[in-house]
Amino acid sequence: MKKKPWWSTHKARIACFFPLLCLMPMAAASAETPEEKGLAIATEARQRETGYQDSVSELTMILRNRNGQESQRELRIKVLEVADDGDKSLVIFDSPKDVKGTALLSFAHKTQDDDQWLYLPAIKRVKRIASGNKSGPFMGSEFAYEDMSSQEVEKFTYKYLREEVLDGTDCFVIERYPADKKSGYTKQVAWLDKAEYRLQKVDYYDRKSELLKTLTAKNHQQYLDKYWRPETMEMVNHQTGKGTTLQWKNHQFGNGFTGRDFDVNSLQRAR
What we know:
Blueprint: H1 6-9, H2 11-30, H3 34-47, E1 54-64, E2 70-80, E3 88-95, E4 103-107, E5 115-120, E6 125-128, E7 156-166, E8 169-178, E9 187-193, E10 199-205, E11 211-223, E12 227-237, E13 243-253
Antiparallel strand pairs: 1-2, 1-13, 2-3, 3-4, 4-5, 5-6, 7-8, 8-9, 9-10, 10-11, 11-12, 12-13
């Protein structure tokens, strides 16, 4: 009797084993380090926010001192997406009278230092913000100048920490470390919801690695069936007891802005 080939007698066993061999490279490829997973989450969050071209929004800024006393300002923010670089933004104060006409122009960059200019109507002068001063407070608020520029993915390195429920919302928790050595922060811990990758909360740690302040974003609303924006952002400084609340409204997209609307030379004529 002729002996059967070895592959014939083990055909069923081989058929079962081959799919496992095929899956092994896929499983290895899907394994991520905490750094890779943190970067992937940040990249996904950023990609979901791109493509709107430009926007303009109205804000109420409420400044609160450690005794709970408040003062209020009205302002607008214009934003222009820039292909292959960071966004351009223009913040214009409309009231009260003592800050009306003050404007901050920011050119964010992915890998280089951001460019920022501040126009002060009281002295009718445009002042360039030095890179070493961007950790300072913006117009007396608890937001630093570096907070006012777009937070490009390339500005940080990342590390995935855990999953956590925050106020009933399932979130990813990641750490991000500023690439800029002149940043006022050593690290930031960010909570992003797992459903839409919306930023929910950020803890900021100062140059001594101590908790400095916390940003909380609330009441996200969707625009153009894609883009989410919080109605309220609250920054609390744990070291001074001060706080700043931003209340957003009247978002408008696709305004046809161009680079000329974000011109340094016309900053003092911003309206």
